[in-house]
Amino acid sequence: MSDEEELFSAVDALLEQAVRDPLPEPAERKRLREAAGLTQDQVAGALQTRREAVGNWEAGRTEPRPPKRAAYARLLEGLAARFPAPGAAGNTSTASAGPTATPAREAAAQTSAPHTAPAPHTAPAPHTAPAPAAAPRPAATSRPASTSRRPGAKTATPGKTTAAVAVDPRFAHGPLAVIDVGADRKVVAYCTGGLVLDVPAKSIPALVDWTLQEAKLGQPKLSGPGKDADPLLVLTESALERYGLPTTLTEEERLAGRLPEGHKVIKQLARAEWKLTKRGFGPWARIYRPAKGSERACVQLCIPSWHALDSRHWGTAAQLPPAELARVLGAYASRVMTPCGSTAVTGLELMTALHPPTRASAPHADGTRHSEHNPGSLGKDPVDPAPCEAPDGHPLLADLPRFHIRGPGEKLLEEAYDWARPMTDAECTLRHLVGIDVNMAFAAGANGLIVGLGAPTHVKAPVFDPKLPGSWLVDLSHVDLSRVKVGKDMWADLDAGLLPSPFTPKGERPDGPAWYATPTVAYAVELGYDVAPIEAYVRYDNGRYLDAWYQRLRDAYLATMADLGVDADLAPADFLAAMDGYQERDPQLAIVVSAIKATVKGGLGKLRERPRGEGWRPGESWRALARPTWRPDIRAAVISRTRINLHRKIVKHAAFTGQYPVAILSDCVVYAANGESPLDFLPYRDGKPLPGGFRLGVNPGLVKHEGTQTVLWGEGVREQFDAPDLNLARYIKDGTVTDADNGE
Fold first, then answer.
1. CA pair distance 576, 679, nearest whole angstrom
2. What are the strands, taking DSSP E only, across 540-608?
C-alpha cells in the first residue's frame, strides 16, 4: 500500500468512527450534563478520565477518542432523550445541533464575532422588514404586534451553509434590549445582533407587560435546578423622558439609590399590581409579581444615566449609541450572564446561578416533588462565620470592648500583597523596572480550590490537613525563607531580606501565632517546615464550589481576548506583540474584557460585603448577612491561595535566576532588568518557561507585561516623596504617581 493510500485509509477510519459515535456540539454537551444535574467530576468518573478532559470536550478544545468516545456518545444520547433542547420538539438525536437558527439568532451570533460592525443608530420604520427576512414577530395581543428588523443585515452567500444553532423560542430575541426613542418619536428596542423591535408600550407598566408577553427576551438557566435569567431592559435618556422618569437623579436620590416612593411611575406600577424589590426604583430596578408555578413575571431595568454602568468597570459603555450598547451588554450576557446589577452583584449571582441552593426531589409515589438541598451549593440559609473570620463590627463581636483592636491572634487577615523594598546597589546599576501582572489572578486562585459549604466546627489542637478548608491559629514565625524547599527533596538558599513573607499582606515576618486560611498553612508545609496549630475552625462539609464559576469566567475572558487578536497558544514574543494595543482593535469588546475582570474581583469581594449606610452601628446585623453567599471564609481562602500562588513563582524565580522582586501590589510584580521587556528577565529556554515560575500568556494565572519605567524614575519618585519603600508596582503602568490602584 502506498503512503497516499495509507493516509486515505486512516482518514476513512476516522470518518467511520465519527459516524458510529456522533456527538452534539460542545455547548449542547454541557447543557445536557447540567440539565441532568451532573458534575464534570461525575462524568469523568463514569468514563474513567480526568475532569479537565470533560471540560475540554464541553469547551470544544479537544474531542474524546475511542473507546471513551463511544461511551460518551451513549451518555449524551440518553440525556438528550430525557432532556431535549427547548424548542426541538421530538428531536432527541445528539448528532443534531438543534433547529435552524432564526434571523434574530443568526444576527445574535455576530455579537461575539471579532471586529463586527455595530448596527447603525437609527430607528426602524414601523412594521417593515428588509431582506433577508424579519425575525419572528412576538405573539399578537390586543395591542398592535411588534415588528422586527435587522439594520444593515447581509444576505447569505449562495452555496454556503451555516451551522444550525439551538434556540430557545421563549428567548428568540436574545437576553436584553436597549429601549430608545428615535427621531420620529417611535420607541424601539435594540437587541443583540442588530435586531430592532418596535415597542408599542406607552408606560412603564405596559413596557413590562410587553417585555414578558411579546418581546421574547431572556436567557436559559445556567444549571439544571436553576432559573432562567429575567429579561433586561436598558433605558436610554430619551426612553426615560418618554416614560416619565428623570434623566438624572437628584443628589438626595443618588445617595438613597432610588426614586422616592411617591414618584408617579412607582404609583403606576402599584396600580398595575407590580412590585419592586427592597432596593426600590434605582439604577438597577427589578419589577416583578410573585411567581405562579414556573411562570416568569420579572423584568430587570438598567438605567445608564443613573450610573448603573460604573465607568471603572464598564468604561464608556453608558455613552454608547443604543445598538452598540446592546452589542457590549449582549456579549457580556452571552458569555457570563445577563447583568442584574453591578459587576460585583452579577459575579455573586453567577455563583448562585451555577449552584442553585435547592433542587426538585425525586418524585413521590403520587408523582409530586418537593424542594430539597442541592448538593454542592451553599444552601438557602446563611451560616455564621467563625469569630476570627468575622469582620470588625459583626454581631458575633458585640461583646468586645468598644475600642478594642483585634490583632493577628484574634482576626483572620488574608489580603493581597502591598509590599516594596529599597533597591540594592546592584539593582540600581540596571536600567529598567519591568512590571508583570498575573491575568485573572483571583479567578485562577479560585480554580480547584476546596472551600467550606457549611458552618465551621471548632477544634482544639488539631492535626493540620491541607485538604480541609478552614481557619487555623498557628505560629509560622519559624519559617525561614533563607532556606526553603523548591521541589521534592530540593532545597534552595535564598536572600530572605529581599523577599516578602508569604504569610502577611505587607510581607512582614510573623512574630507569633496568627490566624491563617488553609492554603497559607499548607504553603508553610510545602516550604519544608512543620506546623502545629493551636486551634482551628474547620469545615467538614466542603467542595470545589467555585470551579464552575471560574470556568465560566475563564471561557468568557479567553473568548473575548481571542476576538481581540490575543489567542491562548501564542509564543511569548507573539503574545507580547498581540497584547500591545489590543484594546484599540475593538474598543467595545475591550469594555467586555474589563467587565469580566471586574466580575471576578467584585464577586469575591461581595462574599464579605460590609454595611452600606442604613444607620448601621457596630454590633448590629446588616442586610448582606442574611445571604447564604455572605461567606468571608471563602473570600479569605481565595485571596490566600492567590497570594501563595504568586509567592511560589517568586521563590522559584529567585532560586533559578538570583533575581528578586522590588515591589508587589496585589497581582503585579516589579523586577529590575537591563531591558524593557519581560523577556529580558524571565528565564525562557527554547521558548519554554521555568517550570513553576512565571509564564507569559493570556490564560488565567499566566502573566502579561504591565509596564516599564526606568530605574532613575523609580529612585526619583521615592526621593521626591521621601519614601524609600514607596510601592512602585502601583505606578509602573504609566509612571504617573496617583492614589489610584493600577492592579488588575
1. 9
2. 542-543
Give the three cell numbers for residue 72: 460518551
Instruction: Give, for 556, the enclosing helix (H) or strand (E).
Output: helix 547-563
Beta-bridged to residue 484, according to DSSP, are 492
Q: Cβ distance 296 to 288 under 8 Å?
A: no
**595 alpha carbon, distance to own chain's centre:** 9
How far apart, in Å, are the Cα atoms of 60 and each of 24, 330, 339, 436, 555?
11, 22, 25, 30, 11
pLDDT at 89: 44
Mean of the per-residue pLDDT values for the chain?
86
Q: Do β-strands 232-235 and 298-302 pair in parallel, antiparallel, or remain unpaired?
A: parallel
Residue 400 backbone phi and psi in degrees, to 5? -70, 150
**Which pLDDT score is estimated for 10?**
57
C-alpha cell at 647: 509567592
DSSP code string of 449-515: --EE-S--EEEESPPP-TTS-EEEEEE-TT--TTEEEEETTEEEE--GGGS--TTSTT-PPP-SEEE
Q: What is the pLDDT of residue 531?
A: 97
DSSP-assigned letter for residue 690: P
Judge whether 539 and 470 are in contact, CB under 8 Å. Answer: yes
Residue 95, pLDDT > 80, answer: no
Task: Please report the pLDDT score of residue 157 as a whole number.
Answer: 33
Q: What is the pLDDT of residues 11-25, one digit of tens each?
A: 555 555 555 568 999
Q: Quickly list DSSP for 616-672.
A: --TTS--GGGGSTT--HHHHHHHHHHHHHHHHHHHHHHHHHH----SEEETTEEEEE
The number of C-alpha atoms within 13 Å of 661 and in the hemisphere containing its C-beta is: 31
- At 692, list the grid cell: 513553576
Query: pLDDT exceeding 90 applies to what percent of the chain?
Result: 70
The alpha carbon of 183 is separated from its chain's Cα centroid by a whole number of angstroms, namely 38
The whole-angstrom separation of Cα 445 and Cα 83 is 34
Pairing, β 187-191 against β 196-198: antiparallel
Task: Centre a 10 Å sphere on the Cβ of residue 431 and count the other Cβ atoms it contains.
Answer: 14
The answer to whether residues 281 and 266 touch, using CB atoms and an 8 Å cutoff, is yes
pTM: 0.79
Segment 672-683 mean pLDDT:
96
176-230: per-residue pLDDT in tens?
A: 999 999 888 999 999 998 999 999 999 999 999 999 999 999 999 999 899 999 9
Q: Is the pLDDT of residue 96 over 60?
A: no
How far is CA 51 from its chain centroid?
A: 20
Q: What is the pLDDT of residues 559-611, one digit of tens each?
A: 999 999 999 999 999 999 999 999 999 999 999 999 999 999 999 999 999 99
Q: Which amino acid is at 248?
A: T
The total of other beta-carbon atoms located within 10 Å of residue 474's CB is 22
Asked if residues 332 and 592 have their Cβ atoms less than 8 Å apart, the reply is yes
The helix (H) or strand (E) run that includes residue 486 is strand 483-487
**Which residues have a Cβ under 8 Å from the Cβ of 722 and sit 6 or more positions away?**
none
**Is 619 within 8 Å of 660 (Cβ atoms)?**
no
